[in-house]
Structure formats: C-alpha cells, structure tokens
Amino acid sequence: MFKPLTTNIETSTLTDPDLHLVQASLQGDAHSFKKLYQRHHHKVRSTLFQLCGSDSLDDLVQDVFLRAWKGLGKFRQSSQFSTWLYRIAFNVASDRRKVLAKMRSRNVSVEDEQLENLSDEVIVRDCYQQADLNQMHYQDLIQRGLAKLSEDHQAVLVLHDLEELPQKDIAEILSIPVGTVKSRLFHARSAIRKFLEAQGVEL
Amino acid sequence: MKKPNFPEHQENFAGEPRDQTDMALVNFIKQNKPITPPPAPNFEQRLFTEISKYPQKSNNRSIKRWFPWAVAVVIPVVIAAGIGFNLANNRSQLQIASNSVSESERAAIEQSLINSWDATDVTLSTTSSTDTQTQLLMELSPLEYE
C-alpha cells in the first residue's frame, strides 16, 4: 500500500544512464566527461539560448560544463545527473541575466526596444538564413514573447514547453514545489498567449 | 494575420495542456522554437583544454567523506588507550612501593613515627605553659585585652 520513498530514489539511481560516466569522471577520466558533454550539450545550449539569447552563448555553455566538472564531487547520486546539470545551467543563466540587467540599467541612453531589435537582427543574420520568412517571423515573435516574461515564468515555459522536461524535474531544478511549477506555467502561457494575439497570431 | 499551420500531435510528458487552446499554444511554441546557433568550430577542444587545468581530486573526496568517521572512531580509542595506560602505570607503581619496603626500612619508619609522636607531646606541654602565661597577662592588664 505504502511504498517507501527510498525505492524511488534507488530506482532513479539505477536507471540513470549517466551514473557510470559520472563515477569514471570522478576518478579523473576526462574522456567519460566528454561523453557526458556530448549527451547533454545540445539541451544545455538550447536552454541557455532560450533564456539568455545568443550573445556569449559559447562562454555560458563552457561555464556550465566547467562548473559541473569542478563540482562533480558535490553531485548527490540519488538524483539524475541531467537534472543536476540543468540546475547548473539555470544558475548560470540567472547570473548572466543579472549581469545584463546591471549593464542595461547603467546604459540609459540605449532603449530596451533598441537592444531587443539589435539582438533580433543578430539572431536573424546568424541563425535563420535557411528558414522561410514566415517561420522566421514566428520564431522572432516567440523570442520576443519569451523576453517579455518574468524570469520565473520564462524558465518554467522554456524548460517545460520548449525543452519538454517533466514538471517533477523542473521543480527539482528550480527548487520549488510541483504546484508552483503548474501555477507559473499557467501564468506564463497566459502572458505569452496575450503577447502573440496582440501581434496578430490566431491561436 | 493568417493563422499558423501546425500538426495537432498529442503531448506525452507530464503536465499536458489542459484544453485545446493550451495545446494549440504549446504546439505553436514548439513548432516555432527559436533555432539555437551552433557552437564555434573549436569549442569542444577549447572547453576540454580548460577542463584539463582542473584535475579531479578523487583522493581528497574520499578523505573528506571518511574524515568525520575516522575522527569519531580514533578519538575514543585514543582516550580509552590513555586511561588504560594510566591505570596500568599507577598500579605497577603501587606494586613497586609495597614490594620495595624491607624489614629494616619498616623498622626505621616505625621508629620515626614513635619519635614524631613524642615530639607532639612536647609541643602540647609547651602549649599548656604558654596558656598559663597568657592568662596571667590578661589578669595584669585587662584593658588591653578588651
């Protein structure tokens, strides 16, 4: 009737496909850590891009994996490595956003809208050359819509709807209850829907 | 604006959209997810060059893990060993004292005790004479002692 909690933890530990690579990395095997990097760098990169934009993206990804390598000894193997890694990515993204916010508040002569447009132009030039104009426009809208959200709502929407992480993992990554994840997701979706509808998108 | 076209696929992860509007929104977001720019060509090499500057300290980690346990075990053992050593040492000293007293020494000690006893008698008699003198002095000059 009542299952002990330890059963779930043990199961998650046993089913974590990264665990043997983590243990080898802890012994100093950089090759195993390279395999971990190759497994997860796409999602980490994508999450950082959705949360922080394309500026200094390589540096941010490097920061995440460097922090993971240095802090591997602190990784509690009762949880999934990927969840722990996303938590680091989220912290790196938060730090980056704080730095950007400070820079923005100092540079009062540059309007937020100009920054967004500048950022959008860079993204368009770098990333969307192969995409058709219509999709480019929608991608641009999503990017701007995400930027309009609060940090909390943006994180939940990116992790859940774009990166497709389960709510349980998101709760662990953000250190909040699952109920709060659901609540933030509801408000984030409402906000981005309003933005998209204001831009003429019919949903 | 023209309504965007997107496939109506079902969600299969936790936290499914609650209604058709949510599902339409989530599908729209997914379909038009901003494309992540690729990393620089030498990015992986650069990352692992940086990582190689920080070797894992697996020994330190195991020491850190076992250090509290080692302290918890070693300190009581050391204390117990110290107490045991101290008891054993004191007991051997007592044994040495009792064994090392010979008959002649015992006689000398006994004689010393008798002498000291006699000396106590002399002191008592001296004390009693001193008390008599004090009483006489009190009678002669009572004011000085009030």
Structure annotation, total helices of chain B: 4
Dominant shape of chain A: globular
How many beta-strand elements of chain A?
Answer: 0
Tell me the Rg of chain B in angstroms: 49 Å
Q: What's the mean pLDDT score of chain B? A: 73
SSE order of chain A, one letter for each helix or strand = HHHHHHHHHH
Helix content of chain B: 55-70%
User: Can you tell me the CATH architecture of the largest domain in chain A?
Assistant: Orthogonal Bundle
What is the CATH topology classification name of the largest domain in chain A? Rna Polymerase Sigma Factor, Chain: A
- The class by helix and strand makeup of chain A works out as mainly alpha
Q: In angstroms, what is the radius of gyration of chain A?
A: 19 Å
Total domain modules of chain A: 3
Please state roughly what percent of the residues of chain B sit in beta strands, choosing from under 5%, 5-15%, 15-25%, 25-35%, 35-45% or over 45%. under 5%
Q: What features would you describe in this structure?
A:
The complex is a heterodimer of chains A (203) and B (146). Chain A has 203 residues and is an all-alpha fold. Chain A folds into three domains: 1-109, Rna Polymerase Sigma Factor, Chain: A (Orthogonal Bundle); 114-147, no CATH class; 149-203, Winged helix-like DNA-binding domain superfamily/Winged helix DNA-binding domain (Arc Repressor Mutant, subunit A, Orthogonal Bundle), CATH 1.10.10.10. Helices cover 76% and strands 0% of the residues of chain A. Chain A has ten helices and no strands. The longest helix of chain A is centred in the middle third of the chain and has 26 residues, at 81-106. Mean pLDDT of chain A is 84; it is low at 1-13. Chain B has 146 residues and is an all-alpha fold. Chain B has a domain at 111-146. Chain B contains four helices and no strands. Chain B has helices spanning 20-31, 43-51, 58-100, 103-140. Classes of the chains: A mainly alpha (203), B mainly alpha (146).
